[in-house]
Structure formats: structure tokens, C-alpha cells
Design a protein that fits this description.
- It contains 10 helices and 15 strands.
- It is α/β, with parallel strands linked by helices and about 325 residues long.
- The strands form 3 sheets. Strands 3, 4, 5, 6, 7, 14 and 15 form a 7-stranded mixed sheet that branches.
- It is globular, with a radius of gyration of 20 Å.
Length: about 325
């Protein structure tokens, strides 16, 4: 029987059976092969953290790779057996509008392809800060989003591109992904960077925690740009807008993915569909490092183990790939 993941209430997750979905007009019926846990977002909704507005039951997940089982009436451009990417939830079988699916490039490993949506989310900061060739960039938070933002910033011409995290092992991963410099948080880091003449012109905040946002403002160079990429769960205290933003001439950019245009891409603002296509192409051309980010692989029947790691906020749990077939 088909199955899907459900969060019944805060901190309670289950795998439930469901009827086999049917493809309607313009839709694809997809048998999932892999889905990816998005650690920050899924943890927040699983635990009912601030700024989620969660209602239960909820069906988590938004990074799905699978194979087409059936085509609904009116579908063109796809065939049964095609490998496709979509934003469907954690489930063995899903129905998705065909226009929201993308075929996987030939030869692309499905366990790598499943990262496509988190890559596209990380693109928001890189596009919206308009990183120029040779500009220095600092990324705060070396979770999946931060690690992809770091790699995309390098691809976009950032030099140097540095990583900041309080976990030494995550900084090891950042170096494996090409970080030019790595730092741990300290009260004197801004002064140290200023003395060295290396304050970043672009700071990408990707921790998803409120407090580091203040540090992002403090670390940025005068007239720099700060992108708020992580979804902070709570309020940031002690921001002195005159000292931290106004007097420094900072540009602060909200980089949540829902700010994307719906129908047409233009400079700095691409649709989700176009960014998903680019993410898959970057993966196919091996422009992004993925393998070191896969920390866990779980069968769907063991899905609860992934959420146990999220609840414990195990910093070594990053890329948790769920295998369905």
C-alpha cells in the first residue's frame, strides 16, 4: 500500500497508509525513489517553533525525486518511466502538476538530484545580493543552505568566500566544499576582520537563528549587503539600527523563497521552475559538491529516526536522504 509521512501533532511523526493517488488532467502520478529532509524548515514545523504557524496534521517535505507511473489526460512532454524532480512531500506515491515537474538530466545520481530544491533556495541570497566578480563574501551557518550558498557565491565570482560556524566539523565540510577561509563566532571577529582589511562586502545569514543576524550586520563592511536567507525562528534583540545599519549604509535583503516571481524570470528574480532547472543542470555538470553533505540515508520505514535527530538538533545530521524504493 502507498505510504506517506504525517506529523500528527508537535513532536509526533508517523508513516501512514493511504489510497493510491490518481493522476488528473495535466498531472503525473509519480513513484518516489528519494526524498530529502530539509533540516531547518522541517524541524521547525515538526516542533511547532515560532514563525511557523503550523496546523496539524501536516504532511512535510518538498524535495522529491521519482519515476513517472502514469500520465493524466492532456499531459505532453513526459513518458512513463521518466525520472522527474518535484516539490512533492515525503510519500511513496505523489500526484503533481506536470508543469511543475522537471526531467532529470541523464546520468545524474538521484541521491544527488534530490538536493535540487535546497540549492534553489540558496540561490535567493546569491541572486538578490548581485555578487560581483571579486567581491568578498561571508556565509554564516554551515547547514545545507549555507553550504550551497557558499558554493553558489563562488560560482558567481565571490572572492574570497568565507564560512562561519561554531561547529568545527561543519567548517571541515565547508572547506571540502571550497571555502577560502573559515571562522568561528567571536565578539572580536568584526574588529579582527577590519584590522586585516577583509570585512566582507556581502554577508549571507543562513543559520535560521535570530541572534546571528545581529552579528551579520556587525561583520559586513560599510556599504555592504546582508541577505537574510535562513528563516529565523524568533526575534533578534539588541539591534541598533543607527549603529548597525543606518550609519554603515548597509542594504538588508530578505531572501525568502516565496519572494520569487510566479510567471517570468528577470535579472535577480527567477521563477522557482527556472531555478530548479538551473540547480539540476549545475548538479549534472558537477559544478556543486554534494557527496560530503549526505550524512544519513534512511529507508522510508525508518523515517522517524531522521526526525529524532532533528529534535535533538544533532549538528552532524545534515543531508538526510530517504529511500522509498
Amino acid at each position: 500500500m502507498p505510504q506517506r509521512v504525517v506529523v500528527l501533532e508537535p513532536n509526533v511523526v508517523a508513516l501512514e497508509t493511504m489510497p493510491m493517488p490518481q493522476a488528473g488532467h495535466g498531472q503525473l502520478l509519480i513513484e518516489t525513489t528519494h526524498s530529502l529532509v530539509s533540516p531547518g524548515t522541517e524541524r521547525a514545523f515538526f516542533m511547532g517553533l515560532p514563525n511557523t504557524n503550523a496546523s496539524y496534521p501536516l504532511y512535510p517535505g518538498y524535495s522529491n525525486i521519482g519515476r513517472v507511473l502514469a500520465l493524466g489526460e492532456g499531459v505532453t512532454g513526459f513518458c512513463v518511466g521518466d525520472r522527474v524532480a518535484s516539490t512533492a512531500a515525503h510519500a511513496s506515491h505523489v500526484v503533481v502538476d506536470a508543469q511543475k515537474c522537471l526531467p532529470l538530466p541523464d546520468g545524474l545520481d538521484e541521491a544527488h538530484a534530490v538536493f535540487f530544491n535546497l540549492i534553489a533556495i540558496a540561490m535567493q541570497a546569491v541572486r538578490k545580493t548581485r555578487i560581483e566578480l571579486g567581491e568578498s563574501v561571508l556565509v554564516l551557518g554551515m547547514g545545507l543552505i549555507g553550504l550551497f550558498a557558499l558554493q553558489l557565491a563562488k560560482l558567481n565570482g565571490g572572492l574570497p568566500v568565507a564560512a562561519l560556524d561554531q561547529d568545527p566539523k561543519r567548517l571541515d565540510v565547508a572547506r571540502a566544499c571550497g571555502a577560502d577561509q573559515t571562522y568561528t563566532p567571536s565578539d572580536t571577529l568584526a574588529e579582527e576582520l577590519a584590522a586585516q582589511g577583509t570585512r566582507p562586502q556581502v554577508v549571507i545569514e543562513a543559520t535560521g537563528a535570530p541572534a546571528p543576524i545581529l552579528q551579520a550586520f556587525q561583520l559586513a563592511a560599510p556599504r555592504g549587503r546582508v541577505a537574510l536567507l535562513g528563516s529565523a525562528r524568533g526575534e533578534t534583540e539588541r539591534v541598533n539600527f543607527y549603529r548597525d545599519i543606518h550609519r554603515k549604509g548597509l542594504t538588508v535583503i530578505g531572501a525568502h523563497e516565496i519572494t520569487r516571481p510566479q510567471h517570468e524570470s528577470f535579472a535577480g528574480w527567477w521563477t522557482q521552475h527556472d531555478e530548479h532547472r538551473v540547480a539540476l543542470s549545475l548538479l549534472a555538470h558537477q559544478r556543486l559538491t554534494v557527496q560530503p553533505l549526505i550524512t544519513h540515508r534512511f529507508a522510508a520505514t525508518d523515517f522517524a529516526q531522521a526526525y529524532h535527530l532533528l529534535k535533538a538538533w544533532d549538528t552532524q545530521a545534515m543531508g538526510m536522504v530517504i529511500t522509498w524504493t
